[in-house]
Structures
1.
Amino acid sequence: MTTSSGLRLPGLLPELEVVRKDFPILERVLAGGQPLVYLDSANTSQKPQVVIDAMVDHLERHNANIARAMHQLGAESTAAFEEARDKVARFLNARSRNEVIFTKNATEALNLLARTIELGPGDNVVITEMEHHSNIVSWQLACERSGAELRWFGLTDDGQLDLSNADQLVDDNTKVVAFTWVSNMLGTINPVADLAARAKAAGAVSVIDASQAAPQLVVDVQAVVCDFLVFTGHKVCGPTGIGVLWGREELLNELPPFHGGGEMIETVTMARSTYAKAPHRFEAGTPPIVEAVGLGAAVEYLGHLGLDAVHAHEQAITGYALEGLATVPGLTVLGPTDATQRGGAISFELDGVHPHDIAQVLDSRGVAVRAGHHCAKPAHARYGVQSSTRMSSYLYTTPGEIDALVEALEYTRSYFKLGS
Amino acid sequence: MTTSSGLRLPGLLPELEVVRKDFPILERVLAGGQPLVYLDSANTSQKPQVVIDAMVDHLERHNANIARAMHQLGAESTAAFEEARDKVARFLNARSRNEVIFTKNATEALNLLARTIELGPGDNVVITEMEHHSNIVSWQLACERSGAELRWFGLTDDGQLDLSNADQLVDDNTKVVAFTWVSNMLGTINPVADLAARAKAAGAVSVIDASQAAPQLVVDVQAVVCDFLVFTGHKVCGPTGIGVLWGREELLNELPPFHGGGEMIETVTMARSTYAKAPHRFEAGTPPIVEAVGLGAAVEYLGHLGLDAVHAHEQAITGYALEGLATVPGLTVLGPTDATQRGGAISFELDGVHPHDIAQVLDSRGVAVRAGHHCAKPAHARYGVQSSTRMSSYLYTTPGEIDALVEALEYTRSYFKLGS
Amino acid sequence: MTAQDLDALYQEIILDHYKNPHGKGLREEFEAEVHHVNPTCGDEVTLRVHVADGVVEDVSYAAVGCSISQASASVLYDLVVGKPVAEAMEIHEEFLALMQGKGTVEPDEEVLEDAIAFAGVAKFPARVKCALLSWMAWKDATVQAGGSND
Amino acid sequence: MTAQDLDALYQEIILDHYKNPHGKGLREEFEAEVHHVNPTCGDEVTLRVHVADGVVEDVSYAAVGCSISQASASVLYDLVVGKPVAEAMEIHEEFLALMQGKGTVEPDEEVLEDAIAFAGVAKFPARVKCALLSWMAWKDATVQAGGSND
Ligand SMILES: Cc1ncc(COP(=O)(O)O)c(C=O)c1O
Ligand SMILES: Cc1ncc(COP(=O)(O)O)c(C=O)c1O
């Protein structure tokens, strides 16, 4: 029922019903016979069959450790892993495959940078008030360790970065400017190329958190002209357990090693060791092999659909959702309300009902959303909000699912006996 | 052919042929129609169908982010993830599930400790000359950062730890004693309870690398009385992308945070944050969820077979292999030659043929072994060896496969025209 | 979860306490104050205890949170104020056992009174933390106040 | 891989060079010495170059490694010693292209002589590093010696 809406919005992915068939979980029936309406994709995306199949094929037919193994399975596994690196390099339009480092998730990628970029007293790091905790706490800890100062861009009332004091914030002592491309709470799309250029002008490195951008926008590291960029596998149709750190090759090779262990070395004696170049320098230990294979299949899948088409779909659904949400009495959207200027995560408040309670009632109707601070407490605090409810769509979301959300919100209001 | 050996060694797993059917890859036919003889399990183990199926079921039916998601899929995913923690806690006989921290691999677990245990000038860290690079380089880097001194136990000619100067090595300034339970190169099984007691007596913490022990021995952290212990998922029939750090709960809660990010916090403001207790304190970001599910299924699978039975099988195969290898002219085994005193990884040299060349010829017969330094360069250097060939069996290995190895080694000798 | 589950969770008693919480507000007489947070959702409670002669004289609190967490603070107030600390701690234990029982524990109405309405919450692991937020804060504060050393 | 693949890899020429390596040993006259390691297996080469008047006068080396890496050092010696540096660098390029061609590049016997026997190695990614170890070391050393700046 939720997928059969007669509505045909311009911009939707062609053959959306066929695309949905790629995702086995979308056929899941929940308790009480409710069909699944999954609107929590900014939290984690669902996985298409090709990704699952690529992983299963690897585990059932090609599993072996990589690099170190010289036998046939080892060669196959190594080739599959390194091919995944090639696919990610293409996905990001990286100059070289050596610029792609596989990490555990976006959080590890950010912490890798916060641990290896040299900072000291007198230096400063500039972030923003709309960052995910991963791009806040990592730098707080780095500043505590090093004595550097942490600064941040504030936010305007309408959910944008406040750049009015940018010249004072980013100064000659700035070593790092780290910011999100798309906010996971407000949906705001930031002017990343400008921010990266500002960092460069000040002699600082730019770090872009593309965790929410990579799923839905064309991410071209050469076009943005940034220094480092991270994203996480599980939000781009890939599995958990894998993330990506991209960095300019010469910068990566200037960083000291992160973890010590197998595969990151050149040679080891008990007294001292020397280290390999990027990417291996930063991939100590057995990497997430089958996860890389899954991620490779995922970005290839996105490439086949076309990121432009995915983005258009996201905008169409987001616009439709903003319209629908506006019809719910007492509902306030946090962040920009122009669908063409924002990502697909929409956080909102509903007068008189706590987000936990909203999410709970929605769940009883099969509608899956997130409630809480979405790992963005400071951005919530900025707007005087303790927690919010967030719906987030993805390439498989239908207008009918948005209808189901809006109906379920109406039901929530009546369940908690709110007048209209 | 390789699995049909008439031989019935005492100690083999009952119904070995049935057990082998659990592992789809063992039916793999390699180039030239060769059946796979997989003797590289110390590098990574193969995966039983139950592990693959558990992962697929999770991805196709229950996938959602954990902890933060309040909807039905979120609850299912969280339950599956936390159940995996319970399974691992039981596998290790941990006092509390809070003592089990999921990491990316053993390497990350060791580096987590090397980054968070406080060290300073005057302190020392004691390791051994038979460690895997992960348990060497991690501490080298920690000592470089902190000014602490790195010390190590040497090795005796017969492949054991040289404990003769233990009282001088481990002294009042020792903060950490880190050592492997089973050597991945020599196969040596170390007296871990004694070493842990020695660390305790000196007021140091003990760190056990159980990466090679967990697959084949009963690992009981309460019986060993150690402080920290790590192992890696992919060597115990689980997937890549996951490892385990176990630590005594009170010690874990004394350590500072490792990575900053989602789920490891209590509260976050732009200026400062406070942190959750273990295990969450050390699990910043989206954890390897489907990997934990796979690992949970893997340790449960091992539990059903019985670690005692797996160990007996390993000993039977290792004894048979040592006998077989002894028949090959010019072959020298590195490490203990008494099967009851060692693990299942057997490294050896063959006069006149380089390990790469051996592995290559073996591969042409379908026999998969490892050649190189096995991430244990110092142990190789100790015995004046540049690199070696390593065969490593596991619970699915048959005597027939050992026969195939020995025949292939004979063939290697004749291929390189070595006289007998 | 189904519509019936929803009704089992949001019992009338809970919604009543949510709309009209008992004992809410921070009052001046207290020996200990604590601040607890639910890290997942950011819900918070600041809670003060006033203990005299081994008796819980007052529990006062300011809380931001969902219906379950608000109602459970209100029920806590009703159940412990006026009781000897030892008895209040036993009630705490009983409520904890109910919440952690995954829906298998039968609540004792004699002891838990209105709190038996939380039996339905125990089936929702994500909400158990909400129900326990103020209870955990109360225990923490009471121990700090020296009212109990267990 | 099959038995035929094995024979394609271990050509007679390779095994001959392995058993009787040309130019092996470290000799005294040199402008640069480098030490390269194959991190995966630990194979090592110490290599010295002696360049005079733009000509590769000598390449001397001590190496520990497999048949492929040993034979390729021997073949390197044969191919570059006595050649002008520029020409030797071209041979290097040609050998590199052959090794990185995944078995699709047809080697030019005029230029590569015995080194054409390494065509089979290109099909084994794990062994390409072995074949290139001494060649990479030679290029590194020659650049350091100022013999070439490309
Ligand atoms: C003894 C030992 N320690 C540590 C490791 C590292 O494990 P991983 O590469 O999964 O981090 C290994 C395996 O490679 C090992 O054998
Ligand atoms: C903007 C942003 N940055 C970082 C992250 C962290 O990603 P992960 O939890 O996979 O490390 C997320 C998602 O949780 C995110 O939305």
2.
Amino acid sequence: MSESSGNIEDPVKIELFRLVLKTRMTEDRIIALYRQGKIVGGVYTGRGVEATTVASALALEKKDYLFPIHRDLGAHLAKGQTILNILLQYLGKGNNLTKGKESGIHFSDRSLNIIGNISHLGAMIPVAVGVALSLKLQKQNSVALNFIGEGGSNIGDFHEGLNFAAVQQLPFVLIIENNQYAYSTPVEKEYRARYLSDRAKGYGIPGYHIDGTDAIKVYQTVKEAVERARSGKGPALIECKSFRMVGHSAHDDAFYVDKELRKKYEKKDPLIKLEKYLLKNNILDHDSVDRIRQEIAEKIEDATEKAIESPLPDPEWAYGAIYASNSDRMAYGD
Amino acid sequence: MSESSGNIEDPVKIELFRLVLKTRMTEDRIIALYRQGKIVGGVYTGRGVEATTVASALALEKKDYLFPIHRDLGAHLAKGQTILNILLQYLGKGNNLTKGKESGIHFSDRSLNIIGNISHLGAMIPVAVGVALSLKLQKQNSVALNFIGEGGSNIGDFHEGLNFAAVQQLPFVLIIENNQYAYSTPVEKEYRARYLSDRAKGYGIPGYHIDGTDAIKVYQTVKEAVERARSGKGPALIECKSFRMVGHSAHDDAFYVDKELRKKYEKKDPLIKLEKYLLKNNILDHDSVDRIRQEIAEKIEDATEKAIESPLPDPEWAYGAIYASNSDRMAYGD
Amino acid sequence: MATSTYLEAINQALFEEMERDESVFLLGEDIGIYGGAFKVTKGLYKAFGGDRVIDTPISESAIIGSAIGAAITGLRPVAEMQFADFITVGFNQLVANAATLYYRHNIPVPMVVRAPSGGGIRGGPFHSRNPEAWFFHQPGLKIVAPATARDAKGLLKSSIRDNNPVIYFEHKYLYRRVKEELPKEEIVVPLGKANISREGDDVTVITYGAMVFECLDAAKKLFEEHDISAQVIDLRTLQPLDMELILQSVQKTSRVVIVHEASLSGGIGAEIAARISEKAFEYLDAPVKRIASLDTPTPFSPILENEFMPNAEKIYNAILEIMKF
Amino acid sequence: MATSTYLEAINQALFEEMERDESVFLLGEDIGIYGGAFKVTKGLYKAFGGDRVIDTPISESAIIGSAIGAAITGLRPVAEMQFADFITVGFNQLVANAATLYYRHNIPVPMVVRAPSGGGIRGGPFHSRNPEAWFFHQPGLKIVAPATARDAKGLLKSSIRDNNPVIYFEHKYLYRRVKEELPKEEIVVPLGKANISREGDDVTVITYGAMVFECLDAAKKLFEEHDISAQVIDLRTLQPLDMELILQSVQKTSRVVIVHEASLSGGIGAEIAARISEKAFEYLDAPVKRIASLDTPTPFSPILENEFMPNAEKIYNAILEIMKF
Ligand SMILES: Cc1ncc(C[n+]2csc(CCOP(=O)(O)OP(=O)(O)O)c2C)c(N)n1
Ligand SMILES: Cc1ncc(C[n+]2csc(CCOP(=O)(O)OP(=O)(O)O)c2C)c(N)n1
Ligand SMILES: [Mg+2]
Ligand SMILES: [Mg+2]
């Protein structure tokens, strides 16, 4: 585990573990539901990148804005989203946050300052930058944090968004989840830079390349970048290197993945790593780990039951308004 | 003048001078025609960047592909375009290369492997990259060279194009004409990188930051990058720093330009600089310079006369075909 | 009352809305000290400072994308495209992101994209576009296209106050050619309401933008020369369309000519014609005729561009043809 | 004769064209070893190698842009969008660059963009699009949308051989649901020719893509239950449109229903309706009726998506209504 993890308090480390575990267990349940044919649409899970998604989101304050993407269930959970809301979404239920209009992981939550993504990779970067601009203009002392895969980092919006954020010195942090594959495509067909964090220099902002399987290291680095951004010093780019331990989505067996690489990263499983660290350093004992696991399992049971029982949308809702009225509750943070 | 200019042969230096002068004089004539109300549409000239545009294009072989943009008349000339064709274009004449369908500087010439730009800045980068891909796949040992302003370098296509070229190690060279303004916008509002060439590292390709007012230095650097690309070693990014000595276009008085900066760069006028160098090193004497000037002046006179006399398009040509037929002469290089 | 050009009217609307509402701010290329390529934002940087008139890098997708972000967190951004043509670079942000957020996530996106559009200025293929139809086919956007100085001002104000993404097409050809007396009182023109620019009984001419004036010229001449009374409808807002007014007029005249400067095929005229043919089928005495630019890019040379675009003469002929049907 | 799915037919066309013509190559995301998100390019990487089946970074603008570059220098690229929805990211390259090069500079651009489109697969707002109308409003592009395996194969071959940029919309819903016997002999289906999928005299039903089958179901039921004989026209190519066949049919039946899966407003149906209403005005006994998806994004939940999309029942009702007019 990271050398410099000393300055993170134990409760934070425990919370990181709890959330990584919660993410793993929730996704396992979603996969199980998928195999039972209960899920509508596709399922993309974060196995192997949970340390990155969880720790990044946990480094935010409540008022900060989170922009998770398709593999970032851990970030939703770390920002305070409930398992129930997530399951309702995956089951396409009528009482979910989008009233059934949006798919699995694509949803926003005003009460938590989470803004859901559209599928077009990278397209949320300029939007998150715009939120950061708005926060700066409104002197709100808060930060916008967005994720992008190493694959998605090659889309034009990455460039336009990051450059604009840098010019305006906005409170914006971009996390590259470099899990070494974009669907079936290995990094050597995606980019040729040694590190993607090397791109930061081209925008005149700091870039970090860190071990994305190390939750404590991620937490530390992101926290630093977030507080730096909050204090008006501008954006940062953080590349978290990890590995996609499963297929691109639940229907992909990932036959194309490099066997050696997979082996190497099985040893770096973020959950096991964090658990070992906590046990070894007597921050948690086996009993506490079991208790945490038990608590999460119960929550998942409970949420699953509720979600499955929940009603489907009313067909009439398809005709839902495409325009806001002038009496609509407007912005986030209102 | 550049220290290392020794390994460039004198005739090349003279040709550089001739072309920079030709560019300056042709553009001066276009401006004069503009003031007489004879030009259709706007006029963007390259005063101050001619060393970059001319030397870059001159570093190419005939079979190489040139992608000039709005300020690159010098590149057209250096690749072999005639003054007459250029003037016909600016006058919207029917016997120009686009039959009157395209504006001033937007035209292609198959016989010279020049591909004209669309107005959308950066949009030609992926196209030039595709040409480079095609050249590589067809093992043609030639190179595609494209220009972009420092302003245009912030558009998404810059990123997508350069990254793809790097991944595929294509014979592609991108020249950033950093003339320190994008229309009225100074560099500090365009980007925050110290050098734009720093972006090269983020694509894993070499980047150069050079004096773009120094024709010999530009020639040398671009030649090296072009030959490197030709030999299969992949793309390069070359930032040529210069200064836009005039307004954005003929109707812009550039009131917003930093006075100090203007003064500084007046001393770096690429034409004067090159002339002084050639005279001082006895590569040309005053008489030869005058003779060159005289020859160009005559060519411009002649071309202007012919261009003005040329017929306008037939209104029917507006109905020109939007689809190629199967009997059309197809590709460049056929 | 003072005389204002179409361009000045837009400038006034921006000024007044920025004064009225602190959350309104502008972003775009060269809109600050320079006042924009067409000087539409002249003086606003000086009046409101760099935090509310933001010069951006050349990054249309980031301009539109960041306007979305600002809009959903309490501000009312007005983004400028230097030319409407360049909106294609930020297309995805508009159609995938801005347009759908309310339906999908119940998040209002109160933003305006100002897009100087239209031909007749010898701009060639990439400075002459009228791209409204693309956005018409994307549910969730509103589209505005004023023809008069009064509407330019009043519709921009409504656009800024609207809680949805609005694309505001300001016609470059009209910037300095249209001049009107504008009242001192505030002008607010509601979105979604067409205007009858000329009353008439014999034929309905439906149009918008710079073509309003070509239609009025044609109508005048038809009245003088043939005693044909054409009702000219200036749509003003293209989305939502004021079908009510259109259908009323068609029921009265039974003959329709639709005119727009965008290319014919797949233009908004097609939708209007289709709706009229469906909803007023029994009232029609003649086929609905459409007059529009050719189905080609905009050619550069004036001779070619003139041939390419609709004008009063072509409209005049079309109306005559429909009247003879 | 062997049975091929719609998806296999596309794969066969790619294989055969790559074999026939060395200048044909493929580029796109995950199309190599993986064979594409839908496995359409399965086996081609193995057969033709990495120089002719190129996995690209996630960069739709670079994919389309570099296809243009390759096309104008002697190759015939076939670019794949992983989903048609993502074509909006490369929109500018298609409409500003590819579409206009021939008119502007007399340079042919022989390329194909394959775009898996359409709903009914629970893909939600961003994996269900039918974006053809946007491209219909851009002169210079050709647009293809096959419904059968035979057409999928034959039209793709023609698209690859065509000297212009062609957007080839392959409907995801049909990939494995459509199966046909295909002959051993080469199939080449010309662009620009519609097909009569069902003969009929009472009403013309114009459609394309997956809706062809919904229309055929409706037509069958109408014949069985009401003795109404509907002529179903599968457009196959959307640009250029086969107006000749359409008008012939309308002159025979005098009644028209147009059906497409794209949203109603500003869809291609609007243009077809407008042209019919203009060119066949005197033949029409009833208003031209359009059936299309709602003017909203595609909702995710199956119940909502079913409500959103046209289907045989809605088409059946629309035809009945038009027959009673
Ligand atoms: C613009 C765009 N192109 C293509 C896709 C299809 N797609 C979805 S996920 C994915 C791979 C993403 O890889 P990466 O960014 O590395 O994220 P990861 O899935 O590895 O976390 C692709 C190609 C998309 N969503 N958006
Ligand atoms: C995508 C796009 N946005 C805006 C414009 C309008 N425009 C034309 S030239 C220009 C400034 C270009 O600056 P730079 O790239 O530095 O080139 P320079 O003119 O300085 O040579 C702008 C904004 C454009 N042509 N394309
Ligand atoms: Mg990845
Ligand atoms: Mg510049």
